[in-house]
Amino acid sequence: LVKIDGHGDQVVQLAWDPSSTSRLATVTGEKDKTMRVWDVRSPSKPAVQMPLDTEYLNMAWSPDGAYLGVTSANIDSHAAPNDKDYVTVLDIRKNKLQTMKFPYQVEEFCFSPNSRYLILTTEHGTLELHRFLGSSSSTAPVSSKSSSHVRSVQAHTGNCYCLRVDPANRYMAVGSKDSLISIWEMDDLLCRRCLGCHSTAVRSLSFSPCGGMLASASYDSVIDISEVSTGKQLHAMDVGCIVAQVAWQKREGSRLLAFVRDAKKESDRDRYAKKFIRIMAVPEPSSRR
Length: 289
Fold this sequence. Notes:
This protein is an all-beta fold. The chain contains 1 helix and 24 strands. Strand 9 and strand 10 (117-122) form a beta hairpin. The longest helix is centred in the last third of the chain and has 6 residues, at 268-273. 34% of the residues are buried. Residues 135-147 and 271-275 have low confidence and may be disordered.
């Protein structure tokens, strides 16, 4: 096992580089506000360290491992009204930052499979596709009104809180405040089906390693498992607590699913007395339908 020290505050986000088994990125809280990339084989010092202007919201790697992005809300009271949210991208090879600013709240984002585009979900229920311009020689924020904007798609009637791309880069799932999950084809951004398995806002999604199943959680105690190709519900598992996040183990053929309790929804006594991270085995689909 490896222990990584050297953070100036608590770690609030971490993500493995999809192109490497040894590179791990972390972002720290408000006292430190720093993005670091670690080689876990030599964890005494970060390979890359970059301070951030504001606190994190989400973090994502590009599939090729060349870029690492974070989203953060603009907390500057003197900023222009159209500068509501930022996506800041670190070019790992050049150790340079590029910042894009947006007039809306960015809920979550990811890179396209070819690492050339950013896909954003917003407070208005839209999917926004932006051409990623790569590392820029200027450190000034790039306006979202520039030519980088490619397409806007109305995906849901409420905030799109979460999105995930399947391991084969064929489908993208979007979870919304309207309690629905939409499944999109990555090639053309066309919606193929919607899943209506929840009664409250969808807050977390995770594809199985083969991409055939989708786990989802909302503001209740039920984790839903659905078949991606048909939208059929395979399992509705009541775990007895409010779930904040789900994550499928990435090993091929794995049926292990980790989930995190929402500690903010528990009493102080429960918050410290109960474990917040659990791992469960997803049952095989029943043959009787």
